[in-house]
Design a protein that fits this description.
Elements (H helix, E strand, L loop, with lengths): L1 H42 L1 H28 L1 H25 L24 H7 L3 H11 L4 H8 L3 H15 L4 H10 L5
Helix pairs in contact: 5-7, 5-8, 6-7, 7-8
Amino acid sequence: MINFRIKQAAYQKRQRDVREIVKYYIFDYTKTDVQMLLNFPAKYKRTLGYGVSLAALLFLLKWLELRFIIIDHAFEIYAGAIAVIFTALGIWLAHKLSKPEMKTIVVEKQIFVEQNPAFVLNETEFEKLGISKRELEVLQLIADGLSNQEIASQLFVSLNTVKTHSSNLFYKMEVKSRTQAIDKAKRLKIIA
């Protein structure tokens, strides 16, 4: 029994020691740290004052140095700024000119197609325009969608002859393109 009490007393003493160690190292240590942090500015007041004043003086000297550099090299700085501005303007302008904005416009136009199976040539308009029979054949083949080379082979004439007939047609009908010639000829009922 005595042995048990000795062991129990030793165990309790160890627990007290552990509590004291924990209390000292955890609670007292943090209080000391907080006190050190609060006392730091007061303790090193002179050193902090010197550091802040040296930083302010360094900032002032750098600012003055920059001012004198700008004053000494003012022309170069302004010339460089103007060069940068004109370079940016040139790049912007080239970008705008090289990529023009394209707008797609859809035009809907009614086309009236007459269902008359028997085509009748309008003789008065035909004579009024002064179109020859060969030019009328070329105009009909143009309306059928053939190229100049295909028209030449079908009519057994040269390519230059077809081009001459086409230009004569355009002149007589007062048009500038094949599509305008076909449109006008259909309106005047010269071709089907």
